[in-house]
Amino acid sequence: MTNQLRTGFTVNGNACPDHDRLVAWVASARPTTMLVMDNRPLAVELYEVAQGETKVGHRQYDPAEGAEWKTKTPAQYVSEVTAGLDPRIYVQVLNEPAINAADLLLLLYWLMGVMDELFNRGYKGIIGNFPMGQITQAHVEDGLFDNFLKHYHQYRGWHVIGIHEYTAVVRYFGVGQWPYYAMTPTEYFLNTLLQDMSYWPTREDLPCAPLPDGGLPPYWHVRRADWLTIQWIGMGGTEAPEYWVTESGYDNMQDVSEVFPALVNKWGIAPNYDNLRGFNSLANIWGAYWGNEWTFDMAAFEQEKWLHEECYPENYIGWNNFMWTSDSWRRDGFDMSQNLQFQSLLIDYAVELRTPPGPDPEPDPEPIPPELEQLFEFENKAEILVFLQANPSLVPLLIEIHSHIQDYFNAPCCRLEYDYDYDYPELQYIIVSIPTSLGLDEAMELDRQFNYEWWFNNPGFAEHKILIDLDWSSPPSDELPHPLWKGILGGVVLFLVFFFLIFFGILFLAHAQSIQALNAGGITMDQTLIEIWNGLSAIPIFAAIGFGVPTIYYLIEIWKRFLDPRIPTPDNKWLAFFLKPTPVGLFVFLVFVMAGSYYLAGTYSQEDAFRTVIEWVNTFFDAFGKLLLPAVVVQTVGSKWYNSNRAAGVAGFNAPSVTR
After folding, report:
1. Which residues pair with 322 in a beta bridge?
2. Residues 6 or more apart from 489 whose CB is under 8 A from it?
3. What gap in Å lies between CA 100 and CA 58, rounded to an integer?
4. Which of 10, 167, 330, 360 could form a disulfide with 320 if both were Cys (CB 3.0 to 4.6 A apart)?
5. Domains along the chain?
6. pLDDT tens-digit readout, 8-56
7. C-alpha distances in angstroms, 227 versus 11, 91, 100?
8. Which letter does DSSP use for residue 129 in this model?
9. Backbone φ and ψ of 612, nearest 5°
């Protein structure tokens, strides 16, 4: 079944009531097809409001309609019907052409010529629009349509074969292989076959296939064009022809006319209508059949839904209910423009068809094995159930893990949690959290023994579907091995180092300014000395910048730890990077020292280049030697402090828990 509404309307462009509502309906429902009679601008408007999702055809009325093929060449006809027509709009080619059996081949060859002309001019066509009785079983079986079908399939996907299909009283009257003898005005026929919804044929009842003896199925009112499909497939075709039902609905047809007097006698014609023919004239009958459960418009909609879901195959791209009009056709019940509930139900159904079906509901997971229920608590139970169903071998492994946890940690009840890697969602696992109130050093030692003596040697470890963690729900103990006051003291020391670096930078700068002031007052001082002190002032300032960033971050972490000692904080990699006595850490610190020295060199006078270079080298190494020792001392002290506080988590390096 297609995901688009296939019910549309044939619109009388010269007598179109409620234009705005029609446009709004097409914009909302976006049916596969709509047909407009004698109103080219309206056809374009409907196409555009449907944003190109609706195939819109245009039918041009001609006083000789149906007989044009006898008096005009394909080229003449195409020139007339495409004059002023937007190429996005399909051309309805003829309307119920009037022929006798002897003329059928002439008509079909004329239509083949029209297909060529339309294609060459960039127009698409709805070809033929044959009336109910024109496609007959005998003509198809005798091969009269064979060349037409071959020619059409050169343009399949461009042109569409147009047909008219009407039924009587209810949509399924005459559909499928209903025997003709059932269509007699007996009480059984009127009260059972027509009324009982259990008799509505299903898709399985309506195969597009020949009978067991190879012949075509007899007597179809609806889907009579299946005879062409069966013939084409029998000729070796692979794709069924596409059909556009440009007129569809209900009528009093000659071959079943004997039924109608009985229907009129029993239930009468709906008020305000002259004949028992179109849609609305059937209100009395449908009310008698389904009035206890449906309104008239609901009954009409249910039959349209049946056409979608049970009757028409997908190669019937759409059918246009005849009609949307305000002229004399209303007297016979054909106008559907005022059936507001019917239109609304079609919109709702269109939305339903466009909505993709959701995934099949997940089956209820099997309950967790009772032994796991007793041993573990569950963080996200539903996800754990699904994961264990996909990995049943983890159940005995979890039981074994719990047993060994008792041997090492004596933890009565562990917690399970399902999780996955956000960068690689296919990596999924269960986390086993071991609750403990032990001190950090003791807990970490037990964790090391647990891992190296058992878990790392277990085959389940290699699957990486279970992670095992330590978890403190509160600080390990009130007597922390490294209490908070040590962290605060470390912060004070770092701040003082930062402060004195800035202080000495300012002091050196002030000294340079003092010498310069003496010069201005008449006391002659060496200009080089001024430049040296200016340069020296930059060295501690640059060093302070390099030292200040981790210091500020460190103090912020101290404050957070002070507010709540249980707050888990990540490793302070900035502080570790600057304070650990590694070649990288020392190099970074000295870079800032050298930057200050470079600034020092840049301040020298260029009057005596040789003297300047010699003095710069002496000054640089003098400054470098004086600062190298403090740098090493700071690195060593900072490293010792980092290592002593790293495990405690009291100074912003680590929280008192082991995180995964």
Report:
1. 10
2. none
3. 26
4. 10
5. 7-354 (3.20.20), 370-471 (3.30.70), 484-646 (no CATH)
6. 999 999 999 999 999 999 999 999 999 999 999 999 999 999 999 999 9
7. 29, 24, 19
8. E
9. -65, -45
Are the beta carbons of 241 and 228 closer than 8 angstroms?
yes
What's the DSSP call for residue 596? H
The 3-state secondary structure of 287-306 reads HHHHCCCCCHHHHHHHHHHH
Q: Where are the beta strands (DSSP E) in 228-273?
A: 243-250
191-205, 371-385, 517-531, 610-624: the lowest-pLDDT one: 610-624
* Residue written as token pair 């074994």: 400
- Rounded CA separation 497/650 (Å): 21
Which amino acid belongs to residue 559? W
Longest dimension (CA), the chain: 137
**Distance of CA 548 to CAs 47, 54, 558, 638, Å?**
69, 69, 15, 13
Nearest alpha-carbon partner for 263 in 333, 186, 182:
186
The Cα 6–Cα 308 span in angstroms is 7
Rounded to the nearest 10 degrees, what angle do helices 381-390 and 394-409 cross at?
Answer: 120
Q: What is the DSSP letter of 252?
A: -
Residue 500 has pLDDT above 60, yes or no: yes
Look at residue 572 in the predicted model and tell me its pLDDT: 42
Helix (H, G, I), strand (E, B) or coil at 175: strand
Q: Which of 53, 130, 42 is nearest to 86 (CA)?
A: 42
DSSP 570: -
Residue 88 is encoded by which pair of tokens? 């996005």
User: 566 CB contacts (<8 Å, ≥6 apart)?
Assistant: 474, 475, 655, 656
Both tokens of 506, joined, read 């300012």
Angle, nearest 10°, between helix axes 609-646 and 484-520?
Answer: 170
Cβ pair 39, 86 in contact under 8 A: no
Asked whether residue 571 carries a pLDDT value surpassing 50, the answer given is no
Q: How far apart are CA 296 and CA 338, in angstroms?
A: 12
Structure token pair of residue 641: 């402090």
Q: Give the ranges where 102-220 is alpha helix by DSSP (H).
A: 104-120, 137-141, 146-152, 187-188
> Of 127-131, 401-405, 561-565, which has the strongest mean pLDDT?
127-131
Residue 58 forms beta bridges with which residues? 36, 91
The CA distance from 241 to 160, in Å, is 8
260: nearest Cα among 332, 352, 177, 338: 332
Q: Tell me the two tokens of residue 228.
A: 């062409």
Q: Which of 273, 247, 257 is nearest to 329 (CA)?
A: 273
Q: At what angle do helices 609-646 and 527-563 cross, to 10 degrees?
A: 10
pLDDT digit string (tens) for 509-528?
565 565 555 566 555 555 55
Cα gap 296→88, rounded to integer Å: 36
Q: How far apart are CA 392 and CA 204, in angstroms?
A: 42
Which of 268, 280, 289 has its CA nearest to residue 321? 280
Q: Which residues contact 149 (CB under 8 A, 6 or more apart)?
A: 228, 231, 232, 235, 237, 241
Q: How many residues does the chain have?
A: 660
d(CA 531, CA 401): 71
How many Å apart are CA 204 and CA 208, to the nearest integer? 10
